Fold:
Amino acid sequence: MMEEKLAIVTGADGGMGQIITKALASAGYSVIMACQNMTKALSVCEVVRQECANEQIEVRNINMASFASVNAFADHLLIEKRHISFLINNAGILSTPVRRTVDGVETLVSVNYLSPYLLTRRLLPLMSAGSRIVNTVSCTYTIGKIDEAFIEKGKEGRFLRIPVYGNTKLALLLFTRELSDRLKNTGITVNAADPGIVSTNMIRMNKWFDWLTDIFYRPFIKTPEEGASTAIYLALSKEVEGKSGCCFADGKEKKIAARICLPVLQTKLWNETELWFAKKNIRLD
Structure:
């Protein structure tokens, strides 16, 4: 019996998520669209099924701002024991006001880092040699800084959405590299995709000057198709087979400054995150 070709895409109903989902569906994979907005996701799902002539596309609810929701999603899959070929941690937000989740952490930190960390750790038992994990980061990781307040507040001092966003994407990149080290010799690979600045609703600030942004900046930034291309490449390309712990942009490996990804920082963040979840009595395996 052949092993199922299953891909999971978080935020699959978003601008890039839809493109990634269509690419995987067109390649013949069953896809679980992990989304919060079920109405929108079900509509996208029907379009993907029709356009890609693939009925093995389904929508499952997940709220990345709730660890209980993430765990329920993972529990469902673990009970089913379906082998996972690709896990694409694509969901992300860039919100302006400070918002606390039901778990008491800043929403950007939960959605962009803690929940992808939790989901990935929980689903590892369903992966084997050849499985690929792709984490969507951002060029803003270069301005990121992980301080003592990061996990619960995003940063020390006043909340500023771009620095906090950069911090979460740096954390996801550090997680990518540390997880890659820990999965060495398993045949499971994990890489980061930097889509660049993409023309989606995420870059809107819901301010009076949004229309100026649309006029002056959108023509010079990437389309969702261009932004999604690197994640698709990391999932489907034979050229990156066995490649792990790297960051790619525009289909090419990026050189990461040593000061950003020191192994000691990677391990420190991993251990602190693991301890934080343990204190919350949230299991990771």
Summary: DSSP finds nine helices and eight strands in the chain. Residues 202-212 have pLDDT under 50 and may be disordered. The CA atoms of residues 11 and 57 lie 14 Å apart.
